[in-house]
Amino acid sequence: MRLWILAAAVGCFAAGMSAGLAVPGVLAACSGQVGSNEDEAYVRQVADKYGLTPYQQKQLRAVLLRQNEEEREVFRTATELPPPVVAARENVHRKASERMRSLLDERQRIAYDRDAQHQGN
After folding, report:
1. Which residues contact 19 (CB under 8 A, 6 or more apart)?
2. Apex 30 CA angle, 71 and 19, nearest 5
3. What is the DSSP letter of 1?
């Protein structure tokens, strides 16, 4: 009986910690609060370059926040960068780019793809 109570208490604590760590970041992105200075500078740069609406800027902040959270998770336990970690990190960047493309209209997406292709060379 004590083991069951202990397991329930640990489970509740873990769930509370997970929610406590995740919810503030999601709420900040959804409310349009400013993220890191680097991310905010990037949002302004992309907004100016592609003519993003305020709503698209808010969505981009959420994309960047999610990318940062996923990257932190990838590197959380890694002490070196073996090939699987490098691949996981590249996957996080690819997904963030896909999310960003999805919030752009067609004209913005064409310009973004052109710039992304140019940066890849």
Report:
1. none
2. 60
3. -
* Token code pair at residue 100: 């960003």
CB 103 within 8 A of CB 54: no
pLDDT at 105: 95
- Could you tell me the pTM of the whole model? 0.47
pLDDT in tens, 58-107: 999 999 999 999 888 877 666 667 788 778 888 988 999 999 999 999 99
- Within 10 angstroms of residue 88's Cβ, the number of other Cβ atoms is 16
CA distance 40 to 61: 8
pLDDT for 60 equals: 95
pLDDT at 30 over 80: no
Higher-scoring residue by pLDDT: 46, 118: 46
Six-digit token string for 35 = 């993220």
DSSP conformation class of 32 = T
The amino acid sitting at 68 is: N
Domain ranges of the chain: 32-120
